[in-house]
């Protein structure tokens, strides 16, 4: 399914193959010989989302660009089933395994591997040929790559990266943070009310 969102229509190379149950919404450009499988969602919430050539986005993966964080995925990259990429830059020949999560402002260098259920946190930079092991977390710039059980170390770095401020423009210490966050985010997402289905 293809949708016009905020006046932008997806641009899909004629050699790309898009499953009939995939959702492509807004300012999305899909390069030659890409494969977007069933249930995948590629959505531009105001910023551009670009797939290079020969990119595979597998079942039920989510790739989301925001108005402040574009997405670029380089050639010959695989985004695994149930993976999530939000507002990040992914180099060429990168493997994002099943269930990986890549957050806003992250940059993953070429020929890197983010293995099953691993996380690359917001504003984290991985150099070329990095490996994030199964279930581990990469956080910071330069990136620390730590197992999940080292939560206190991850949190110390993650807190400095300021998720609510960086993504939503809200101070973490706001007394009604979740009230303001959800109301602001809901207003932004409500812009889909005027989307137009193209197929």
Automatic annotation (TrEMBL):
This is Gamma carbonic anhydrase family protein. Signal peptide: none annotated. SUPFAM superfamilies: Trimeric LpxA-like enzymes (SSF51161). It comes from the Bacteria. Coiled coil: none annotated.
